[in-house]
Write a structure and sequence with these properties.
With about 375 residues, the chain is of the alpha/beta class. It has three domains: about 140 residues, Rossmann fold, CATH 3.40.50; about 160 residues, no CATH class; about 70 residues, Orthogonal Bundle (Rna Polymerase Sigma Factor, Chain: A), CATH 1.10.1740. About 45% of the residues lie in helices and about 15% in strands. A seven-stranded parallel beta sheet has the order 4-3-2-1-5-6-7, with helices on both faces. It has a four-stranded mixed beta sheet with strand order 9-8-10-11, covered by helices on one side. The radius of gyration is 20 Å and the shape is globular. The structure holds NADPH dihydro-nicotinamide-adenine-dinucleotide phosphate and magnesium ion. NADPH dihydro-nicotinamide-adenine-dinucleotide phosphate binds next to helix 1, strand 2, helix 6 and helix 9.
């Protein structure tokens, strides 16, 4: 029996993970963690019977505890998240929280010897230099859930990493593909939330509309596959059929294709190296009219070039990039800043920062605090 701990169970990845578990008899849920959505959590507890749940917000946790009266143990805060990620009987953690708040629980889970099905990219972007050596030391598996990284992982299967000449990281281009800067000045939150191919949480949907998501994924790939940035190239593939490709020294290019459905990479990560029955729609080549490619527009979508810049500088700069973006997205969703201001703010925060080499976890969290404070003072 695979015993699964889900951090972020009420989100887009979290609910799709539960769907995968429901369809596989040899999997069960041992813990669930959310921030505040106790209505959905309650339904999940009734259906999946976890032993432990964490409601991050303390007041909500107390409110929740009253409604479940002894059905399940309820914890809260960072300690609660760590408890959910390190349960003795658990085998694998699905890291599906949004944001770098996931760093501590992910690191503690690895320390406790748990495998990780990994979606929470902000964590690896900011703390990859701490997480990857820990993964090696503890001998656990870090299995990518992000569709592009799951594709790359599959294309690397059984091959020699030294023989890879390039990773082609595909991107849909989001809702504003083909638009120029001037056309994006008055973009609304609703327009930015309208992704052409994927249905996801709000934060990553906005990240996709700015292409910051692809930037985060470039840094994520750098850590997951220990590749240099020069070998990671982003290419637009607007139909989201090719999930990413790996090119080898001899010119062979391997790709993973499929319909856009996150349940495939989630299931693959949970069952690796086994493959199970298909859950989503099959890819029907007889109905597929085209697969096209475009170069990304780095002038309009500054977020992508800033990510490469932050990644190449390294140290605490990716934390600045990520923390500024997390705050900027929240401000945009609150309608306090415009769409274009998001990348401008990230750039401004990066310019003001003197990078720290090899930051410790405490230093990373300190930098995050500093950036958020600087941005809060502005708005
Ligand atoms: P959602 O916004 O849909 O869900 C986020 C989840 O995290 C919710 O369950 C939320 O709980 C929980 N959460 C947020 N903060 C905390 C906290 N402090 N403590 C405990 N739980 C918390 O996000 P997604 O599912 O879209 O994305 C999750 C991660 O996966 C992100 O890092 C994203 O980049 C990555 N990802 C997502 C993909 C997708 O298709 N959605 C694809 C590839 C990667 P609550 O509901 O209570 O707020
Ligand atoms: Mg992705």
């Amino acid at each position: 029996m695979k015993k699964v701990m889900i951090l972020g169970s009420t989100g887009s990845i979290g609910t799709q993970t539960l769907d995968v578990i429901r369809r596989n008899e040899d999997m069960e849920v041992v813990s669930l963690a959310v921030r505040s959505n106790i209505r959905v959590l309650k339904e999940q507890v009734r259906k999946y019977h976890p032993r432990l749940v964490c409601v991050y917000e303390k007041e909500k946790a107390l409110e929740f505890e009253k409604t479940v009266s002894g059905e399940v143990e309820v914890v809260s805060g960072m300690e609660g998240l760590v408890a959910c990620a390190t349960m003795t009987e658990g085998n694998i953690v699905v890291a599906a929280i949004v944001g770098m708040i996931g760093i501590r629980p992910v690191m503690e889970a690895i320390r406790a010897g748990k495998d990780i099905a990994f979606a929470n990219k902000e964590t690896l972007v900011t703390a990859g230099h701490l997480i990857m050596p820990l993964v090696k030391e503890k001998g656990v598996k870090l299995l990518p859930v992000d569709s592009e990284h799951a594709a790359i992982f599959m294309c690397l299967n059984g091959e020699k990493k030294e023989e890879v000449s390039k990773i082609w990281l595909t991107a849909s281009g989001g809702p504003f593909r083909g638009k120029k800067r001037e056309e994006l000045e008055n973009v609304t939150v609703e327009e930015a939330l309208h992704h052409p191919n994927w249905s996801m949480g709000k934060k990553i949907t906005i990240d996709s509309a700015t292409m910051v998501n692809k930037g985060l994924e470039v840094i994520e790939a750098r850590w997951l596959f220990s590749m240099s940035f020069d070998k990671i190239q982003v290419i637009l593939q607007p139909q989201s059929v090719i999930h990413s490709m790996v090119e080898y020294n001899d010119g062979a290019v391997l790709a993973q294709l499929g319909t856009p459905d996150m349940r495939l990479p989630i299931e693959y990560a949970l069952c690796y190296p086994e493959r199970r029955e298909r859950i989503g729609e099959p890819l029907d080549f007889t109905k597929l009219s085209e697969i096209t490619f475009e170069n990304p527009d780095l002038e309009t979508f500054r977020g992508l070039s800033l990510a490469y810049e932050a990644g190449r500088i390294g140290g605490s700069m990716p934390t600045v990039f990520n923390a500024a973006n997390e705050k900027a997205v929240a401000l945009f969703l609150d309608r306090k800043i415009s769409y274009l201001s998001m990348a401008e703010l990230i750039e401004e925060m990066m310019k003001l920062h003197t990078p720290v080499k090899n930051p410790s976890l405490e230093e990373i969290l300190e930098v995050e605090k500093e950036i958020h404070k600087r941005m809060e003072d502005k708005y």
